[in-house]
Design a protein that fits this description.
single chain, alpha/beta, TIM Barrel, about 25% helix, binds S-adenosylmethionine, binds iron/sulfur cluster
Length: about 325
């Protein structure tokens, strides 16, 4: 279905939990998640009902996200059920990777086609600083496991944070080359508790390109700008919601773990999806598409986004 601005909306991002095994300082509020009871989180059946309604109006690609999707109990069964909904063409996942080891095949068998793994630093000490956790991610082994299971293209997402991980850009470029994968640099967004403090750590794409002339523009691919690296394998992608917003390419709706449908990541508008029958759910999806704004107003101080990212589903 097309929205008012002729964008074809065919992509649903489903946050299956707002809980997480990390506490990335820019994503999760300091106090962590307010412990929602299981009753507040959509049950498998409610998610399947929503997916059934979504496919009827043409949403056919699903991303499973969170919070950390792999901490949801029964996640493999849920994915399998989603993949059995007639009309679902592709399921992909975004994860911090901590529960991925040894499980890539299981996810693939359940129906996941591709995995975006988030990793903001290759340095164990910086990992502790960013994630506020002592857990450790064996990223090279995980990339190898993704390659062995042909989960291509492999994308590794890093939010660049001035003064924290920006000096690691050459290390990320080397990693993209070593495994021939795409590393995507994401601009930090002023969402949730972060609000307008984000400028301390925010870095724009243009600043990076000035410093690293070996990055050569290749193409725009949906919301990402993809660059090749001179004399190296692999690619660098940029996702620039702030400096070069990509709202004209927006093709998505978001379903939060507590059952709210969000027409846009960057507004506070949300529609309650719970306790509705199938026909009502279809109407709610249509209405959400009609409510999609032309573009976000993130740069305007007057419009802060209340939910933190772990509660929206990044
Ligand atoms: N836990 C999973 C993970 O980290 O991949 C999935 C959920 S997480 C909210 C999805 C993505 O959102 C991560 O890549 C994370 O770095 C990104 N993210 C969270 N808060 C953000 C912010 N304020 N600005 C930009 N990206 C953010
Ligand atoms: Fe958890 Fe992902 Fe947020 Fe980090 S970015 S706190 S891993 S949900």
């Amino acid at each position: 279905m097309k929205d008012h601005f002729q964008r074809e909306i065919d992509y649903l991002r489903i946050s299956v939990t707002d809980r997480c095994n990390l506490r990335c300082f820019y994503c999760m509020p300091e106090e962590g998640v307010d412990k929602k009871s299981h009753r507040d989180i959509l049950r498998d059946e409610e998610i399947i009902e929503a997916v059934n309604a979504a496919v009827k109006i043409g949403l056919k690609k699903i991303r499973i996200t969170g919070g950390e999707p792999l901490v949801r109990k029964g996640i493999y069964t849920l994915i399998e059920k989603i993949s059995q909904v007639s009309g679902v063409q592709e399921i992909v996942m975004t994860t911090n990777g901590l529960r991925l080891k040894g499980n890539v095949k299981k996810l693939k068998d359940a129906g996941v086609k591709r995995i975006n793994m988030s990793l903001d630093t290759l340095n164990p000490e910086t990992y502790k600083t960013i994630t506020q956790s002592t857990l450790h991610l064996e990223h090279e082994q995980l990339i190898q496991e993704l390659i062995e299971n042909e989960m291509m293209p492999i994308k590794l997402n890093a939010v660049l944070l001035r003064g924290i991980n920006d000096h690691e850009i050459p290390d990320f470029i080397a990693l993209a080359d070593r495994f021939d994968i795409q590393v995507r640099f994401i601009e930090l967004m002023p969402i949730g508790h972060l609000n307008y403090d984000y400028k301390t750590h925010y870095i724009s794409k243009d600043e990076i390109l000035k410093k690293y002339p070996e990055l050569m523009f290749e193409q725009k691919h949906l919301i990402a700008e993809v660059y090749t690296i001179k004399n190296k394998r692999g690619k660098i992608g940029f996702i620039n919601p702030i400096s070069h917003h990509f709202c004209d390419q927006c093709n998505r709706l978001r379903l939060t773990a507590d059952g709210k449908l969000k027409p846009c990541l960057h507004t506070n508008n949300e529609i309650d999806m719970r306790k509705h029958n199938q026909q009502e759910l279809i109407e709610i999806f249509k209405s959400a598409i009609e409510q999609k704004p032309k573009q976000h107003q993130l740069n305007k101080k007057s419009n802060p986004i209340h939910r933190s990212m772990n509660k929206i589903g990044g």
